[in-house]
Amino acid sequence: MRITKLAVISLWLCAALASASPTSPVDGVDYKTLTPPQPVQTAGKKIEVIEFFMYHCPACNLLEPYLLDWAKRQGDNIVLRRIHVPHNGAKDVEAHLFLTLEALNLEQSMHARVLNAWHVEHQRLLTDQDNIEWAQKNGLDSTRFIDAYYSFSVTGRLAGLMRVAQSYGITSTPSLVIDGRYVTGLQMMQDASPATAGTGLETALMQAADALVAKARAEK
Hints:
The structure is a single chain. The protein has a single domain, classed as Glutaredoxin, CATH 3.40.30.10. The chain is 51% helix and 11% strand. The chain is built from nine helices and five strands, in the order αββαβαααααββαα. The chain has a five-stranded mixed beta sheet with strand order 1-5-4-2-3. α2 (58-74) crosses α9 and α3 (93-103) crosses α7. The protein starts with 10 loop residues before the first helix and ends with a helix.
């Protein structure tokens, strides 16, 4: 899902498109290099990969099985993190739910359930009360959930999420940031290969991610 509309056409980009390939990604076409790079939370040889996503985003839901399979294949080569883009700003209800689950160390175990609520059960978690009722329905302790939901640490992080997304240059979801330096995403795959449709875009994105993880590791 594109967050901001971009309309930049140049001769150098057209030339690059002709040779672009997700297995040999081209800077400015299949990915972009962050300047300056952003700090990472991993140490040693592991490569940090951050997925910027939104719960309501259909493309994020479609990417999920591909991303999980890719992460499993990468194994100890990477550490996968997620950051929810606050589509509606500092009071974004979806990002609020994500940060609450993260604060309770439930983000990994409950992530699929939230996506299922949105995209399979067609529940629209659009208010704080919707989130609280969803938590209760899914067996979470109401008191712990509500305490975390309205805690200073969660609401404070929520207020700063847009700055985080901007610092990584995120303009669409889902996007992947490799080692704090390289950004790629489904929108870039589509822009680079407009004729590619269906699952071809997800496959192309994971191929680009493979190449960028290898690039980041070689440069460490």
